[in-house]
Amino acid sequence: MARHIPLAASAPWFRLELEQSDWAAEAPDDLANWYAQMLLIRRFEERLLELEKAGLIHGPAHASIGQEAGAVGAMSVLGAADKINGTHRAHHQVLTKLVGSVVPANFDIRSDCFTLEMDEAVHRFMAEIMGLTPGYCGGRGGSMHMRDANAGVVGTSAIVGGNPPHAVGYALADKILGRKQVSVAFFGDGAAQAGATYEAMNIAAAQSLPVIFFIENNLYAVATRISDVTRETRISSRGAMLGIASIECDGMDVVAVHRAMQEARRIIDETGGPVVVEALCYRHLHQSGSRTGSDFGYRSAEEEAEWKARDPIALAEARLTALGVLSTEALARIDQIVTASVAAAAAKLTEPVPGGNALRIPADLWPDPATVDHGILGDLSELSGLRQLSHADMALGQTEKVKFVTAASETLAAAMERDPRIIVLGEDVHQMKGGVSGFTKGALERWPDRVLPMPIAENGFTGVALGAALNGLRPVVEIMFGDFCLVAADQIANGVGKVRHMFGGDFPVPVVMRVRVSPHTGYGSQHSGDPSALFGMFPGWRIVSPSNAFDYIGLMNSALHCNDPVLIIEHTELYQREFEVPKGDRDFCIPFGSARVVRTGSTCTVLAASVMVQNSLRAAEESGVDAEVIDLRNLDHFGMDWATISASIAKTGRVVIAEQTARSLSMGATWAAEIQERFFDSLDHEIIRVTGSIASPTVSSALNRAALATSNDVKKALITLAETS
User: Fold this and answer.
1) Do domains 13-353 and 596-723 have the same CATH topology?
2) Which CATH architecture has domain 390-582?
3) Are the CB atoms for 515 and 489 separated by under 8 Å?
4) Cβ neighbours for 696, distance < 8 A, ≥ 6 positions apart
5) Cα–Cα distances in Å, from 621 out to 320, 577, 626, 652, 722?
6) Which of left, alpha, beta for 682 (phi over 0: left; psi -120 to 50: alpha)?
7) What pLDDT digit, counting tens, does each position of 258-274 carry?
8) Any idea which residues carry the catalytic annotation?
9) pLDDT in tens, 63-118
10) Exposure class string for 581-608: b at 16+ Cβ within 10 A, else e
């Protein structure tokens, strides 16, 4: 007869309960300082809501009133070098970390006043939320996107569930670089239902990373109660089921949160991590603004009153006075200090409207509109001085023929030898003697600990790579097929593609993403796409598409030195082809933004990349048309070599853009528009775009071939131009 054998989580999972005596066991100065930090958050948020009502905050104001204990209790165990991130509701966490990073040693709010540095942190944070120049990100981040690396605030994300993978990346970097620090991802019950959060937790557990997933379970994701969207409302269960030690605590009790975080750090010290902490709490107000949830009908006034009776600040006041830590006079003094700091910050950022009582923002505090595009990418100064080679240089030394894939593997291995910050993340990269493509063969032979297997979770491990890049590593991410980039689109676009610009643009984001493109192999519609156009929509990416092994070596090395995110498109049709490269040399670079004329001609200009370079050369020879063929090499907005293209068009007056991919995935329409804007007077004919069909390739061999542009399609275009010359 079948038996039912109960199963249990393999990791500890418990609720931490406190008694009033636990408060008495804490140091009085700590208790007083924690109370002051909670009150600072409350007064700060109250002033923000006043500014919002006055029309002085552009965008939402996600107040954290009611959730102060979670932030302060969590931060009480973190040092300045420990990292945090948060999501759209992160004022309380960020403010506490910012001010805490400049608090003097032995500071005691019972006798001390705020220092100039503490007041300045309040001022700059308020300025950021208001979108003003004195803000930490120059006003670009606002309420939901906040960063100050010096204080350990690596960057919040307004995408629900977008930030946990980044914190896992911070922790990965700390572990690999031997730093004894922890990272904390703050998010809510809503994000706990998101796939990226689960992926991040699973990766952290698999890699035993020192990260704490701090879940503020306030019961509602905007207006949706947690019980409406999940049967298991104990969110800490998510960690326990993934083998992660998980703790539930009272998020309205600052000491309870403090103790839970102490336990989390102890567990990390003993096991390496990660840990989940679920703090049960309640936001007093609606998702954004100063109205309550009951005003909108999704919460009852009775429920709100019940939770407000357990207000974390009122709870702390009652216990601290009962313990004799703070008197009524001391409470009033603390209130005066924090209120004055907040008021002074607001006064610096506003002024009276002439002749009235209303306030406005002084004109000189707004960012200069002329800087709107600054900081999308860096200036590439980090590449200056690196050894560069061109194809012509090969005539000056010995050469050898190597397969494209061999050159790729050897280039990565050479780079990892010179730079211990380079790691590889991807599916199967640690198996089959170099992964599915052989790219990691050389790396596995020498540095297997830096080649990290990832689950089938592209969005998750792309986010981990971003976090690692923001904390000192240079990750190389492998995406097995181009279409899988769509699975990771959130982190590619909202994460890597925007992070530098929205946080002020003055820090490196050295992510390299290798994408294998295999449209000719019969893998069908979901394994055959070229995602270049997707990346092209987000100018925070550099895009390179080498057509030969020499270019791959040079462009990959530039990518691995670059402080910008770089996408490398690898067409698998090239993998087994042999190419001439400098003998034994895998360390040279090719500068970004440099196209190459591979065939000179006078009749027309053909712009191509990857396999279409060879197809265009073949088309020119077979058609007899004297075409000039340019290997673009760089496909992104900032990388197009308009000087080389301009010189060619001035000579030929005619342009063919040759792309193999489906027309809907083509970048050629964008290039054609740019060419017409730049070189209209030089054009003698309409621009002809050669692309694949409208449809994606399918498994059928005949339909697969029909879906892709070939050398014959380029030949037809060349003949058309020649006949109308």
Assistant:
1) yes
2) 3-Layer(aba) Sandwich (3.40)
3) no
4) 525, 528, 529, 662, 707
5) 87, 21, 8, 17, 14
6) alpha
7) 999 999 999 999 999 99
8) 527
9) 999 999 999 999 999 999 999 999 999 999 999 999 999 999 999 999 999 999 99
10) bbeebbbbbbbbbbbbbbbebebbbbbb
Residue type, 191: A
Question: What is each CA distance from 527 to 56, 369, 575, 660, in whole angstroms?
Answer: 49, 42, 17, 15
pLDDT digits (tens, 9 = 90+) for 331-374: 999 999 999 999 999 999 999 999 888 999 999 999 999 999 99
Are the C-beta atoms of residues 721 and 654 closer than 8 Å to each other? Answer: yes
Measured at the alpha carbon of residue 440, what is the angle toward residues 438 and 446, in degrees to the nearest 5? Answer: 130
pTM above 0.90, yes or no: yes
How many angstroms separate the CA atoms of 671 and 304, rounded?
Answer: 56
Amino acid at 667: M
DSSP H or E segment with residue 614: helix 611-623
**Answer CATH for 596-723 from 3.40.50.1110, 1.10.1760.20, 3.40.50.920, 1.10.3380.30:** 3.40.50.920
SS3 569: strand
DSSP for 99-148 reads: HHTTPPTT--TTT----HHHHHHHHHHHHHHTT-TTSTTTTSSTTT---B
- Architecture of the CATH domain 13-353: 3-Layer(aba) Sandwich (3.40)
Where do the structural domains in the chain lie, given as residue ranges? Answer: 13-353, 390-582, 596-723
